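Hi support team,

I submitted a single chain yesterday and got back a structure, but I'm not sure I'm reading the token output correctly. Could someone confirm the output below corresponds to the sequence I sent? I've pasted both exactly as they appear in my results page.

Thanks,
R.
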Amino acid sequence: MGRLKLRGSDLRKMGYPQGKVIGLAINIVGKAYKRNSLKEKLDLLKSILEKPEEYLENEILGRIAEALITPKVKNMEIPLKLESESYPVFGSEQIEEGARKQMDVAMRLPVTIAGALMPDAHQGYGLPIGGVLATENSVIPFGVGVDIGCRMCLSIYQMPENYINRHTNILRKYLSDNTVFGAGNGFDKPMDDAILERKEFSEISVVKGLKDKAYKQIGSSGSGNHFVEFGEIEILDKSNELDLPVGKYVGVLSHSGSRGLGATIAKHYTDLAISLCHLPREAKHLAWLDLDKEEGMEYWLAMNLAGDYASACHHQIHKRLGKALGEKPLAVVENHHNFAWKEMLNGKEVIVHRKGATPAQKDVLGIIPGSMTAPGFLVRGKGNEDAINSASHGAGRQMSRRQARESITRSELKKVLKANQIDLIGGGLDEAPIAYKDINKVMSIQKNLVDVIGKFTPRVVRMDGD
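Hi R., thanks for writing in. Yes, this is the structure output for that exact sequence:
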């Protein structure tokens, strides 16, 4: 017997617009015509799509027709503000024009309240990487980014001096045995996690089919600039919140996000936002969802699920490596840097998008990495409201991935790694240290945003690749 149930893909191929009308049509026709063949259902839906006005008075199908006949005012292009609102730029001399232009457009959105550009900023899609944007009661899926909840996590261990130097080979093995990298990849035997029992997996339509993928990929890392590494963490501030004496420790530092789960959520809701929020061409990828409407509330729940899933992935990475070391960490610090939060700004609740930016509220700890050879920093936020309580999320790229692959050789990368005593597993030329800005310069620019309480020096690094 052939398939009887309608699928969203059937309607999209037919020409039904992305949005609530697809679910509405599947529900109504699926129930009222459940004994009809799939072809009959599809023919009926095609007829409604072609001439919805003829079905407006139909008691059963009228709601579908009504949803298709969208008032023209709803399809009108939403105008941007004539002038870009002013915003602070930290380290303007090293930020490319493309990032500035993208931020200028974001500051002309009618929902924008405030914005800021971090010193590691560079051009991305929609909101630039390193862009921070506060909006009113609205969330921009592309302002969060494709890798929802991408984050840093640092575990600090009390280990003997020179432990890394004396155990480099075994640390390489720990990384090889306990981490998995790359798009679509996951563990053969994943660990269970409470995150997989979250109700969103059964209540949000776009998430329902992603639970198996989320299970397979939990505890793994993506490609690009994602990494897991052993290194030396030096605590510099004796009054640190971790209650650790000043000195040197062994650290495990990871950078990754929400894997296929987050990417699928991001694509679905970005497409939905673009279909509902008609903006001029230059602002197309800044389409937003209203948080007092079903689509916005649903994205908010899905986004938070993806963020919590990213955190669970890091916890599993660190749990596996801690077990391999046979040690328990003295302290763990972590933070998102591709996310949206409800926060207060100048006495008003706003939605703060940090697309490649570190939360830096007063006394909040975070991690700002460098590159595979450059140091990372354990920082304490200063709560600078001009920066919307934010800081950079790294050094920032000064070369595109393509430029790096075309201009850097493998032998040049090997020389840099040897000079910096870095043992690298994987890693492409697009991630070579020269492709990034000087992290020390970036940190000097944001002294008014964060205090440095610790410095992490990478030693054994694993990234995607052979």
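A quick pointer for reading it: The mean pLDDT is 94. Let us know if anything else looks off.

Best,
Support desk
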